[in-house]
Amino acid sequence: MQLLPVASLPLPAGPAAGGAEPKEAQSPSFGEMLNKALEEVNTAQVRADQLQIKFLTGEVQDLHQVVIAMEEARLLTSLAVEVRNRVVESYQEIARMQI
Hints:
Blueprint: H1 23-26, H2 30-57, H3 63-96
Helix pairs in contact: 2-3
């Protein structure tokens, strides 16, 4: 049996490698992430609506494509509602804290 050597993985350039970048450049803020997520929800809903209209007018024949787009929009909307509920719940918990 022949054993092959394991190749080493390249390490990403980061603070440990001497390539320190400002923290803001590395990751988006919480507000930016929420805005991006809401844009994705809106895009999915618009796409589902457009596919539904195209299916009803006969432009799209594949019902599966329409159902998948509608289910994706529904799931993203449900996720957005759950995130909103958790944020509101967290805010209320913080507001109840005694200082």
